[in-house]
Write a structure and sequence with these properties.
The chain has about 290 residues and is of the alpha/beta class. Helices cover about 25% and strands about 25% of the residues. The radius of gyration is 25 Å and the shape is elongated.
Length: about 290
Amino acid sequence: LISSKKTFLIARDAWKDHVQEREEMQLDRGGEAIILAGAMHILSHKVDMSLYPMFNANAHPAYQYFNADKSVALVTGQSIQNNRTTDRGNDNAAPEYALWLKGKDKSMKNASLFVGQKTPMEKLFGDKISLLPKSLSDLEPPTKYESHIVIRDSYDKAAATVSREQVDKLHKKHNKEDVVVIEKMQNGKLVVTQGDIQNVKGEYKVHIIGHGYKDKYGTEILAGKDGKLMAQGIRGLEKSIRDNPYAKLASVLLLNCCGAASSTWGANLVKDFKKALNNESVKIKSRN
């Protein structure tokens, strides 16, 4: 990204030479530029001039100082974490919008935050952006998974209720196109009722909802399937979205919707599932 554009390091010496720097960047070279600045030059909206009398009071936040309608900023997740309780002095500032960006490893473990005003952020990211809270302490951390697949594997009112609640929770944190819903119909067939399985991207989590119980042999079952059968179903699901090289199964939640099983239900099903799936990179949990 940086190698393809002009790069500048700004705000040296308390940004006392900001006029010269701005003129240099606006010479007839034109085009886009990457401007490197300290995190607080981006996150702060005002400077305490009694503490820093040599600072330029108009130089914060840096990305808005040059062109707020066209510029956005990228701040590392660590810088966001380090300044979560910092007073940004932005009570009367124009609204800012944000979007977490995956790290170089294609995960949210080392995410960074894009920040900007609405017009340039919408131009870059469409409806994926969200309003940035005035205080960074109120900012939602990056979500672990980029996509979710909710499978309602039992056809009844209880399963439908739990499935709907699970989907509603996900919609509060994700765009609808990032949540795929698959439901069992009365004829027993599984049908995609929301989203597109081919749009699943990044690390994704599968939520399997059904009735959990123990059969006469003591084997733990969910929606009529033991761990081996469930693993076969997950492998089939993985094959259906392999056209996307960046889509990777990261987690599976086995959700018992009926509550009739004992509080210990699920532990053995998870073990059976893990053994059959034979993929240590996938996290598998159960919940009643």
